[in-house]
Structures are given as C-alpha cells and as structure tokens.
Amino acid sequence: MDLLEGLNPPQQQAVAHSEGPLLIFAGAGSGKTRTLTHRIAYLIEHGTSPHRILAVTFTNKAAKEMRERLEKLVGPVAKRMWLGTFHALCAQMLRIHGDRIGLNPRFSILDSDDQLRAMKEIVKDANLDSDRFKPSVALSKVSDAKNDLLTPEQVALRANKPHEKVYANLYARYQERLRANSVMDFDDLLVESVRLLKESPETLEHWSDRFKHVLIDEFQDVNEAQFQWARLLSGKHRNICVVGDDDQSIYAWRGANVKIILDFEKIYPDATIIRLEQNYRSTQNILDAAYGVISQNAGRASKRLWTEEKGGAQLVLHGALNAQEEAAYVVRQVELLRREEHLGFGDFAILCRVNAQSRPFEEAFLRSRVPLKLVGTQRFYERREIRDVLAYLRWIYNPDDDGALKRFINVPPRGIGSATIDKLEGMAREQNRSVGAVLLDNGSTGKALAPTVARKVEPLQRLMRHLMDDAQKSLNLTDLMDKILERTRMLEWLRGERDADSVDREANVEELVRACEAFDLRLAEDVDELGETSEIWNEGDPLRLGMFLGDVVLDGAGDKDNSKNQSDEAVTFMTLHAAKGLEFPVVFLAGVEQGLLPHSRAVFSESASDEQLEEERRLMYVGLTRAEKRAYLTYAQQRTMHGRTETTQTSQFLEEIPAHLLEREGLAKAGQGGFMARSSEWENAGRGAGRGGYRERVESLPRPTFSAASSSSGSASSGSVREANAKAPSFRVSDKVRHKTYGDGLVVAAAHQGGAGEWVEVAFLTGGVGKKKLIVAFANLEKVE
DNA sequence: ATGCACGTACTTTTT
DNA sequence: GTACGTGCAT
After folding, report:
1. CB < 7 A contacts with chain C (nucleic strand)
2. How far apart are CA A621 and CA A294, in angstroms?
C-alpha cells in the first residue's frame, strides 16, 4: 500500500519525515489524524517495530480511534505499539517500574471526586475554615503546582503571602496522605513518571532506548510535566513528532501551556516544521470568518486555512428576543434545512459556551418533537452507584485505600455512620496503619469498640475478609464482580429503593458487569491475536484488576450512549469544549454575547486577562471551524442568568468577522437594533418593531405542535394506572400526561423493568420542572389527549 | 443516623 | 433559578 497516496504535499512530507524533531501545525479539518496514522504506518513499513513506537493522545477516544485506524493500515501488530493517553501510559510505566523510586506499584488512582473528598478532610484536619480555604481552590493550586513539576517544598519556598503558605501546607499534607494510602491523583501519574525517569537512570535508559519514535497529538494542550516526560523519553533517539494547533488551545485553565508548542523551535532548533493549512471540511466563507476572529490573537503561529470549496453560504447572525426564542429559531431552521437540503437530524449541532444554556433548547426541541441529544453531560463511571461498586473493587486491589473504603463502608446502609468512621480512623492513626488494615485484622477492633458499634462493624469485617478471599479465587474480573454484588446485595438494595432513579442505578450496575465481561473478553482476544500475553497485562492477576480500574478511572469516557430516548439521528447539543475535533454540516453557535462568549469570567472579573480573552476567542474559532456548510450565530437580547434577566450585548468577536460574510436576521437585522446592540439602543429596539424581523420569515414554516403529537397509536386504554400497570406499559413515548403537582408533560422515555415496575421519564412543560423520572405506580399520572 | 430546610454559589472538565 | 452542601432537628 502506498501510504503517501492521496495526501497533499505537506501531509506527505510529514508522513515521510525520517529522523529528528518534527513539529506539525495541523489546522482544523486539515487531515491531522490521517497524517499521523499514516506516518506511524509508514514508520512501521520502513522497519520500525511497533513495539518501539510511543504515541500519545489526550483522550481515550482519540487513542482508540487512532488504534483502529492503524489496525486497518498495518493489522493487529498495531496492538504492540504503546499508544494511549499520557495518564494511562504513565500509569503503566509506574506499575512496572514505580518500585524503583519507592512507590507501591499497586497504587490506585483517585478521580476528581476522590480528590475533593481527600482535600476536604485535609482542610478539616488542619482546623482551617473551609470557607476561607476552599478545598476546590486548594486542589486547583495543587494541580497547578504539579503541572509545573513543583514539589510541596518548592511551593512553600515560593510562598510569600500567609495564605499562600497555608495552601502550600495543604499541598504537603494532601501529598502525604496520598502516599500513605498508596493512591495517586491524575497529576501524580505525570509527576511521578517524570521523577522516575529523572531519578532512576536505568529506567530512563530502558525506556528512552526502547522508544525510537515518540509522537504526540494535540500538542498545544500539553503542560510542563507532560512535555518533560515526552522529552525525556525521546531524549535518546530525538525522534519526537508533535502535532497540534495553537489556535485550538482551549484548556489553559487546566494547565495546558500553549507556549510549549510555540517555543518548540527554541528547544529543538533543528526541528522540521510543517504546516497543514489545506482544509477539507468547511467552505471558504466559514474559514474566512473564523480567520477574521482568530487573527486578532497576538502571538500565534502564523498560518491560514484555505480550501478548494470556494464561497459557500453566508454565515447567519440571528438575534432573538430571549433564550426561548433563540432556541425556537434553531428548531425552525433545523426543520427548514432538513427538508430543503435533505439533511438528517444528525447533521446539526448546537454549540454553547456553558451547559446552562441547554434548558431552553431541550424544551423547544421537545415541544417540536425534533430529537435532541445532549453530549458530555454525566459520565458513566462518575455515577454514584458505579463509583460505589468500584470502591469495593478498588479496595480489594489496594486495601490501604481508605478513600475507597469510606466510600463503600455504609453502602448499602449497614448502620455505620460518621461517628463510627471517626472512631475507626482514630484507631488507625494510633496503630499507624490504614483503616482497611485495622478492620481486616481480626483481633484489633474487638475490645476497642462499644458492643453496639461492634455489632455493626463485625459483619462488615466478615464481608471484607470474604472479598479478599474472593479476589484470590476469582477466575476473572466478571467472576469477582459477580461475587461482590452477591455478597453486598447491592442490586437487591437498589431494587428496593423507591425513587425513580433507582431504576437507572440498577441498570447502570448491570451495565458495569457488562463492562467487566467486555474487559475479560478483550483481554482474551488480545492474547489470542498476538499469540502471547501482552507485557502490560501479563503480570499476574492483581494487575489485571489494576488495569481495569485504571481503564475505568482514566477512561471517563465510559459514557456510552446511555440512552433509550436519544436516537442516533438527533441534533447534537454540546459545549464548545466538547465539540473540539468534531464536525457537522450545520453548526449553530448559540449565545454569541458578551459575558457568555467571551465568558464574563474572562472579561469582567478582576482576574480577567488578555490570555483569557484570547482563549475565549479560540473557543469561538473552534466553534466556527466545526461547520462544514453552514454556520449560524445566535444571540438572545434578553437572557436570564443566575435568576436575573438582563439585556445583553452581542459578542465583541462578531465585529471581527468581515461584515460581508454575515447575513443578519431577526433582531440582528440592520435597523432592528441588533447592529447597534453594542451601544445601548436595545431597550426600545426589541420589543415592538424588533420582532417583525423574523416573524415574517418564520410564520410560513410548519411548526408541529403539541396537539399534533400522536399519542393514540394503539396503546393501552387509559384506564386506571394501577390496573394497566400489571400488564403492558400503559404509557409510551410521546404520550401527553398530567401530574398533580408538576402539571402537564410529555413522556420521553418509558420502560417496564426492575423491581419498581413501570417507570416513565416525563418532560414537564410547565413551571420549569424539566425532566423527571417517575414510577408509574406511585406517580399517579393521568393521560391527556 | 437520617431527613428536611435553609443558605449560597454558579465556565469550560481531554485524565 | 437551581442545585448542592451544610446544619439542625427528629
């Protein structure tokens, strides 16, 4: 196969580049992933063993996609490549060699919720007022420090003001606590990996010798620790290939440092630099608009996207009266374009700055019966019940992980509350070991606890011992998980819970079991295909558990399409951040207002800076460059935020788009107030005459309404709910129902499952109730025609 | 130990 | 406007 075929000249150059540092500026839609995968395949084809290639991404999704595309190019040997996220790769390295710098290789990984719990306890233990020293603030300072590879001591030395010293102290305590429990937070994985490479020369030699080529995706988002790590690993062969786009750097607030990509040349003066500027996604008009915006940023690497798709539709700027009208407008445009341009719902995306913008859209789409799917909301492995079950698993893997223990200690409820936990922690401290160790030790708790307390604790201790035992005897992960669920009676407990969410929770736990099965299966398959156990997983059974836990914590993405009510063919709603890397024929950028985009925190707050404004501008740029054919920019003249309705100003970024590229609609029409919006003419403009602008345009459009919704298609007769409940579900999706307190709503999901019986999810249209899950037997719903 | 009520705060969230 | 967390009362 000719790996250079079908690539443009700069892409070919990037693919065929042989040795030495390589920086690829890959603009939006410039075929970045294609170039990267072809380059890797090219390396393999030219004799580099996959085993000696390290490819790093930021997300599991990107890693997975790259792996799949590579397997298509080079076959299953791609599996032997080290390809993964920074965090996952670091975790693996630390499990293999972490003992060389005194780490317990069976560390567990804290997720952000665990981190917060830990920090809250630290703040409390330090007798500090958690209002003055917020755990979340402390954590972000800790994270900043770690991103810059600063130890607690270094932070303490730099601290001048008293409160900085306090935070430095909290960092130190937090770190002590983590190490004592053999746990690491996300940032530690990087920090400790760098330390490992720096402090253990033979480890550095081992890995840097091995990795002939190091490739890094989304390089604009790396932080100092990540760069140091990659730099060390590529130090021997100096084949470091980085791909990124400074214009799409939107994670500075998480420690990403754009300067690293911008200064790459300074660090590697012999670096080859390639720019991928041909865009295969958008029309020239969209690119020009995007360029108008992004070119206002200072200090960016100079480049400009171009395409063979000359011209294209104008971008549309629509001003609406308020957020509801804004959403209604988008719905109408979707319906119109879908019919006139034969597009599917899946061809549309609505991008927003903040998730709080979603409500009006959800309501408007619900009403019009156009399917809408919200992405990036809650993640599977972050659900409470999942984390509770996983806590058992984590603790089995690492019995010193008190965070995990405290999470499951009273789930399901077994009468152990904070008082008891305090007592146990006190004992643990006295004996200088973990709570888990104390509880596992038969003799140690007996006399120290009051009999009434001991009676509650003993069954727990028995359970814990059994679980440890189960871990030894289990054949695989699924087997162990089954035993945990059986012994804890978790499913039975969830089933007994009477709230509507318990239905979901039970289903989620079952989903987790399926994830375990998939994991076991994948493991078996990989072993099969490669004819051997891969080095990562062939370290005995406990590590297999560690692998899974690593996957789970590090792969927040477990957020399947958790949906029975969200079809694949649906309009997508998401934040600009979540949209990075995606593309849609039609994009709506909603809320193009001062305060929202750019966000108020970047403009009005006292900490606002040019850097922040520039990042907001990059967000706008990312949003625009998602669009293939059409881009709509919408704003609401009045918006309710934090319970207050205010008149808005249009985004300053709009003025950066060349005027001829913009078609103004609704209140944005010249003379309708929209154009003047940034002065203060709004008051009068909108209310009376202003509306006309879109009214005329819109009235002719068909607009499915509520009453048109079919609820009659042969479903059960609407008699008593209870009587119907015994048989087939009496409610189906799209039924209109009435609830005595919530009012009228629309059934958006219905099922008959679990111990709680039939349940429905109802989107209430009155009084901002939103969506609620209801158990039919309890909810006393009435069907209305 | 659990439930309710009041107060507060509230971008974005790859791992 | 809401959602969550803390604190008090049962």
Report:
1. A 120, 130, 640, 642-643, 768, 770
2. 6
